[in-house]
Amino acid sequence: MARDVNYNSTPIFGSVVAVQGSVVDIWFDSDLPSINTVIRTGPDNTIVVEVLSQLDEHRVRAIALTPTQGLARGMVAETDGGQLSVPVGKEIMGRMFDVFGNTIDHGEALSELPRKSVHQLPPPLSKRSTKSEIFETGIKAIDVMVPLQHGGNAGLFGGAGVGKTVLLTEMIHNMVGYHQGISMFCGIGERCREGHELYHDMKKADVLKDMVMMFGQMNEPPGARFRVGHAALTMAEYFRDDEHRDVLLLIDNVFRFIQAGMEVSGLMGQMPSRLGYQPTLGTELAKLEERIANTDTGAITSIQAVYVPADDLTDPAAVHTFSHLSASITLSRKRAGEGLFPAIDLLQSSSKMATPGVIGERHYHLLQQIKQTLAQYEELKDIIAMLGLEQLSVNDRAIVNRARRLERFFTQPFFTTEQFSGLKGKGVKLDEALDGCERILKDEFKDLPERAFYMVGTIDEAIEKAKKEQSKKDSKAGTQNAATSDKEIAKA
After folding, report:
1. CA 268 to chain centre
2. Which of 176, 298, 299, 349 would bridge 146 by S-S if both were Cys, CB 3.0 to 4.6 A apart?
3. What DSSP assignment string belongs to 100-165?
């Protein structure tokens, strides 16, 4: 299904006839290049453009993938008929690339690798797996409350500083431990600072060797930003289809992909649709999203950061993205402010996998109980703020105690933050997380202090933590009593 790139064809030469910013018109006497063909022009053939439309039998209109400074009418344009391609193979692991497949991490040069076109078709329905499986992450809050689909798309909604990158980094770490898979990070319209920080964070956390990174930076032309998602997916598809491995694809940010498409559409002179978006928005997003799939040989599971313009969920960009997602994880600044990490808003997040047929009766009923308990606690918060906890009925007080213990139990120390927090990272199996929630809901630990549940893995660790705290208190009290009796003896 994957088309390998052939560079042996005879070059075709043309001439630049018009340059309008990132839009370039090129004249060919014969053999007009097809759509998506890459053409090189400019001084020393350093400017790369991609054909987006054929104007007549001699002219094509192309969008620039590199800056067009120095390009002038009359310059020679050259193409071998090939499309934009990226290198594939085991050697790309642990490296950082741009949209052309060039390494940008100042590492050793890659040997000559086979290349594949970034324009691939989604896997046909006959090759797709029909099983709905849960993608276990080892993060309690996600596995219990927002189960992810193996080979599905999950949206991660969150602003700056709420732990989005930390959550992505932890998932990359756990991907190796839980699924023996690899991770692919795709930064669309990223700032240089973000890419630089992420690269060094991954290196420190020792997960870089099991991942590939690709960036289309914010200062690059819209054509390059528009294609970086397809380029990253092509690399991910190689590991799925040829190496038969599971891939975790992290995209940051889907909205910037749509935005790049909007800029390209405007430059090409297309009439915009509602709110200035391109008329081909649905098709362009589907071309990218439909390639993320679970096949008989392996699966690509994606976690996509989604920016919602002006928090308007009816915005066309958000609406079209939502239709492709199997789960949405919302990060809350309020929870982050309270120190409850990961700062996932458990009531705002949802998953299409949360049905008895997929996750099982026990997990489903527990999930409903937890949501009901947390929702009731939210309603009682105003009363507690005005009148205090003592004014609540016995039943309401029990609900508050359960909810507060659950909130703290859903916090977790991460492997990737060990060097900052000093807490050893914990990965928790789904059965252990469910067991803990079930026992909390049965009021088994109503006598244990709330802090015992904060930043632990399994429920047994919480019990152990409470015992240690109690023994410390007892020994401290014993020391104080001994000192008091010594004083009394001295007085006597």
Report:
1. 30
2. 349
3. TS-B-SS-PPPP---EEES--PPPPGGGB-----EE--S-HHHHHHSPEETT-EEEEE--TTSSHH
438: annotated active-site residue: no
Q: In this structure, are strands 59-64 and 47-54 parallel, antiparallel, or unpaired?
A: antiparallel
Known active-site residue 290: no
Task: Indicate if 164 belongs to the active site.
Answer: yes
Torsional class of 356: left (φ above 0), alpha (ψ -120 to 50), beta (otherwise): alpha
Q: What's the angle, vertex CA 231, arms to CA 136 and CA 329, rounded to 5?
A: 35
Task: Kindly report, residue by residue over 258-273, the tens digit of the pLDDT.
Answer: 999 999 999 999 999 8
Distance (Å, whole) CA 117 – CA 394: 65
Q: Specify the amino acid at residue 473.
A: K
Residue 9 reports pLDDT greater than 70: no
Among 61, 164, 256, 402, the active-site one is 164
Residue 308 clears pLDDT 90, i.e. is over it: no
- Structure confidence at residue 490 (pLDDT): 66
Phi, psi of 383 (to 5 degrees): -65, -40
| Structure tokens belonging to residue 350 | 């949802």
Tokens representing residue 116 in the block: 């594949």
Catalytic residue among 190, 220, 237, 289: 190
pLDDT of 214 > 50? The answer is yes
pLDDT at 5 over 70: no
**Are residues 88 and 235 in contact, defined by beta-carbon separation less than 8 angstroms?**
yes
Residue at token pair 């006959």: 126
Q: Which residues are paired to 77 by β-bridges?
A: 14
pTM of the model: 0.86
User: 3-state DSSP call for residue 344?
Assistant: strand
- How far is residue 105's CA from residue 119's CA, in Å, rounded to a whole number? 25
